[in-house]
């Protein structure tokens, strides 16, 4: 019998990494063949430590889901950390993977790689065709570098070493395992926390950053995990029929978007907050619209399954179970 591949999930305790582990286990991957390390056990910004880990473990596949992430406030406040840590993590892992014979690697990026004024929905060819959104430019540049690392290793070593490193670019993710920090979280967990606290405190109103008019697309994290495993396991000839020559990245989206105002009302309803929702136009909106063109991945046999209404209920349940009692 052919043994199951040894799979390293970088960031296995994060929202996306833990969802990938859940999906792999559900598909029958033996738990003992899934490798993970906490930050305390392995600092991914330390090149020597990462190389030592790969030399010891020798994984067959790598899901690179580890990253420093956050919302508009966090990106604006810590730009140096966002670009430095993400560059170091991806460079160390991708190079160490190559040096230790890993042929299949999946890098997880972000929709913020595309220009601020990219045509909607955003297709893969929009990469590097315009100026990035200023509020998260350092993070976006780091993620673009990760895509180009994969493409460059494929270009230089793909044919001679048989490597095929791919990248998936998800839209805004949410769901179990999210970060509900009051300042550094993304929009859905931030809204869940604010409306929950407003409900408990019987606040008459909640003010939301920006005008409420920007449109955003949201993907449930378990759908993202399923897409990641699907892309990883696609045969090379089939995958590359749907990408341009030497391209490593493909979009992963839900296919529909909503305004921030619509989202806020939906979250308030799920949480049970009945007060007034106001908007603060003095705060930044970010990009006016970010909708992914996921037609290529759809053509490769994958579509999102979880609708926003049910997904928000699941996310709030996760918040109540894991965060509400431990702010």
From TrEMBL:
Gene3D superfamilies: NAD(P)-binding Rossmann-like Domain (3.40.50.720), UDP-galactose 4-epimerase, domain 1 (3.90.25.10). Residues 7-242 form the NAD-dependent epimerase/dehydratase domain. It is an enzyme of class 1 (oxidoreductase). NADP(+) binds at residues 11-17, 108-111, 143, 170-173, 186. The record marks 110, 112 as: Important for catalytic activity. Keywords: Isomerase, Multifunctional enzyme, NADP, Oxidoreductase. Substrate binds at residues 194, 209, 216, 285. It catalyses: GDP-beta-L-fucose + NADP(+) = GDP-4-dehydro-alpha-D-rhamnose + NADPH + H(+). InterPro entries: Epimerase_deHydtase (IPR001509), GDP_fucose/colitose_synth (IPR028614), NAD(P)-bd_dom_sf (IPR036291). The active site is at 139 (proton donor/acceptor). GO terms for molecular function: GDP-L-fucose synthase activity; isomerase activity; NADP+ binding. Its EC number is 1.1.1.271. One of its GO terms (biological process) is 'de novo' GDP-L-fucose biosynthetic process. Pathway: Nucleotide-sugar biosynthesis; GDP-L-fucose biosynthesis via de novo pathway; GDP-L-fucose from GDP-alpha-D-mannose: step 2/2. Catalyzes the two-step NADP-dependent conversion of GDP-4-dehydro-6-deoxy-D-mannose to GDP-fucose, involving an epimerase and a reductase reaction. Belongs to the NAD(P)-dependent epimerase/dehydratase family. Fucose synthase subfamily. This is GDP-L-fucose synthase. The lineage of its organism: Bacteria, Pseudomonadati, Pseudomonadota, Betaproteobacteria, Rhodocyclales. The gene is fcl.
